Amino acid sequence: RKEVEQDPGPFNVPEGATVAFNCTYSNSASQSFFWYRQDCRKEPKLLMSVYSSGNEDGRFTAQLNRASQYISLLIRDSKLSDSATYLCVVKRDSNYQLIWGAGTKLIIKP
Amino acid sequence: NAGVTQTPKFQVLKTGQSMTLQCAQDMNHNSMYWYRQDPGMGLRLIYYSASEGTTDKGEVPNGYNVSRLNKREFSLRLESAAPSQTSVYFCASSSRGGGPPSGVGANVLTFGAGSRLTVL
């Protein structure tokens, strides 16, 4: 079992809709959580960090559920430009490494 | 502001050949990293350099060597390329103090555009 798991998708969503996807992690001691976005054939870029109380950045909302060991990303009023692969990233408690999920592909259709 | 620059963007090698991927950052970051990305898998850390003068193995270091030439530059070398090293390689940097990464800000990575390597 992978330490960080994501549904690979693709999620095909009409423009303007709301879409949400989760990421599960297996190490209960994980401390920090992030969502990165990666466009096709491009480098990953930080979308947002995920805080314990949940946080929002414009149309994007991130949530952390420690009891069930998952983080979620909600995108409201989706735009064509939101089409990308969303990477879930988890930092172990004392290890230097960031553990990356394989990503969820999102396709927004007009 | 260039950010993180890595070269080459594309390379085709034959099994057994050697090559070096170059990476430079102009953000005065202390830490630099080399990752590889393969289909259906998350990014995997090959090597990292927490600060100038130090390098450490990541998750998949076998078959690679690195050099932290100065604060700006961190190169990755394949001494004898194998087909299993066909991948997309990303260099990244982050702003943090000495020692292993810690804290939210330390884990915000800025990536280069990637290098696509094919080993035949």
Notes on the structure:
The complex is a heterodimer of chains A (110) and B (120). With 110 residues, chain A is an all-beta fold. Chain A is built from no helices and 11 strands. Chain A is globular, with a radius of gyration of 13 Å. The model of chain A has no long low-confidence stretch (mean pLDDT 92). Chain B is mostly beta strands and 120 residues long. Chain B is globular, with a radius of gyration of 14 Å. Chain A binds chain B through residues 2, 4, 8, 32, 34, 41-46, 49, 87, 89, 91, 95-103, and chain B through 40-45, 48, 50, 56, 58-59, 90, 100-101, 103-104, 107-109, 111-114.
Question: Which range does the strand content of chain A fall in?
Answer: over 45%
Instruction: Using the alpha-carbon principal axes, give the shape of chain B.
Output: globular
- The chain-level mean pLDDT of chain A equals 92
| Share of β-strand residues of chain B | over 45%
The unreliable regions of chain A are: none
| Radius of gyration of chain B, whole Å | 14 Å
Kindly provide the radius of gyration of chain A, computed on alpha-carbon positions and rounded to a whole number of angstroms.
Answer: 13 Å
Largest sheet of chain A: 6 strands, mixed
Which structural category fits the helices and strands of chain B? mainly beta
Number of strands of chain B: 11
- What is the helix fraction of residues of chain B, given as a range? under 10%
**Distinct helical segment count of chain B:** 0
Q: How far do the termini of chain A sit from each other?
A: 36 Å
Main interface pair? Answer: A-B, 24 and 23 residues
Helix content of chain A: under 10%
